[in-house]
Design brief:
Hypothetical protein af1432; 3-stranded antiparallel beta sheet; Rossmann fold; 387 residues; elongated; Molybdopterin biosynthesis moea protein, domain 2; 16 helices; 3 domains; alpha/beta; 5-stranded parallel beta sheet
């Protein structure tokens, strides 16, 4: 078994005893006390499968440690080991630390080995489920994103720009659960597939919408929420998307950390989309960020500082005008592509996928668009072409 197990006790002799007891059977590391253990976990980014902690330790007891571990590294399996076997201690450990097992000292080798083996199996089960879930979600999001780019390129372009802003904000604030913010941003405009294209194009170009058009456009977050809610485990993402333009209290059986992520995600998404809208109206980055900071006084000021700091998109890209037949997946379209009737086919900044390339070829074959397109090539594609 290669997964690491962290043993925590405030007595070095006890830790040495565990090592002798379990020598050769498990991949063990030790930490003297809760503070040392938490520091080690954070230094190694929680790269352990199981944490076994003594209950009574100075500075930070076992329940406090395992509760922090649960918050910071929820996938780690947590085991409590104590000589104080009263029900109150056990209940506190289970309720606050969500422990996997509660063992009492002295604990013989057979019981300890059996418990650690079960904990490792539990960790693998959770890890396998998480990997499957992430792959399923990743595939679903990729399909939905590509559908949005094909059906409504203007809405896709807006989501892509907001994604860039939010990525910088998340990095600046060192936020966890970054994938939630990323996915929520790309899915934020999904409901636009049900909105008339001319309305979305009006939003994209800054045209003043009529009251009827505005009312129709305002339904897109709810439409996206209803679509995303059909995908298992996407409920937090769906909630963020639904509340991108409003903030209300979260109710129901949702963990406090999830609630905080959802509220923060909705507000950051709202800021990013509003920031994009202001920039498209010709307002400077500093002025746009200043206006939004006044409207969102409770939000961390670093959010607005990140928007100001964000560098404009690189200008040193190698842009070429090439025939559609020479375009390859991975290239970036560097112009709006519209039909002769003015219908937007591809938004500026879209990455070419095999499906998008097929769309371009079909429109060109129908003589709806020109045959030459401005594109840029990422480094990897340029290197491959040279090779």
């Amino acid at each position: 078994m290669n997964e690491k197990i962290l043993l925590v006790d405030d007595e070095q002799a006890v830790l040495q005893g565990y090592r002798r007891l379990l020598h050769g059977d498990f991949n063990l590391e030790t930490a003297v006390g809760g503070v040392d253990a938490l520091s080690l976990l954070q230094k190694n980014n929680g790269s352990y499968a199981v944490v076994v902690s003594d209950m009574r330790m100075p500075q930070m007891d076992g329940v406090e440690l395992l509760t922090k571990v649960r918050t910071l590294f929820p996938d780690l399996v947590r085991i409590m080991l104590t000589g104080n076997a009263d029900l109150q201690t056990a209940a506190r450990a289970v309720n606050e630390g969500s422990i996997f097992r509660f063992l009492t000292k002295p604990c013989d080798k057979e019981l300890m080995a059996t418990t650690l083996t079960a904990a490792l199996l539990q960790y693998r089960l959770v890890a396998a489920e998480k990997q499957l879930l992430e792959q399923t979600l990743s595939g679903s999001v990729q399909v939905l994103t590509e559908v949005l780019s094909l059906v409504n390129p203007a809405a896709f372009g807006r989501a892509a720009r907001a994604r860039r802003y939010i990525h910088h904000i998340v990095t600046r604030l060192s936020l966890g659960s970054h994938w939630k913010f990323d996915v929520a941003t790309m899915m934020s405009q999904l409901g636009c597939v049900a909105i008339a294209p001319e309305i979305i194009d009006g939003v994209y170009t800054g045209r003043q919408l009529s009251p009827q058009e505005q009312a129709q456009y305002d339904t897109h977050p709810t439409i996206a929420h209803d679509l995303l809610s059909k995908i298992p485990r996407m409920e937090p993402i769906a909630w963020i998307v639904a509340h991108q333009n409003r903030a209300i209290a979260i109710e129901g059986d949702i963990a406090d950390r999830d609630k905080a992520d959802m509220r923060l995600g909705a507000e950051i998404l709202q800021v990013a989309l509003a920031f994009d809208g202001l920039l498209r109206k010709g307002i400077s980055r500093v002025e746009a960020a200043t206006r939004l900071s006044r409207q969102h006084r409770g939000l961390d000021r670093r959010v607005f500082e990140a928007l100001v700091e964000l560098e404009p998109e690189a200008c040193d890209k190698q842009v070429h005008r090439v025939p559609i037949a020479e375009i390859r997946p991975g290239m970036i379209v560097e112009q709006e592509i519209r039909t002769s009737a003015g219908v937007l086919v591809v938004a500026k900044g879209q990455e070419v996928t095999s499906t998008l390339l097929l769309k371009l070829k079909n429109f060109h074959s129908a003589q709806a668009i020109e045959g030459m397109v401005q594109v840029s090539s990422p480094t990897s594609i340029r290197a491959a072409r040279k090779g």
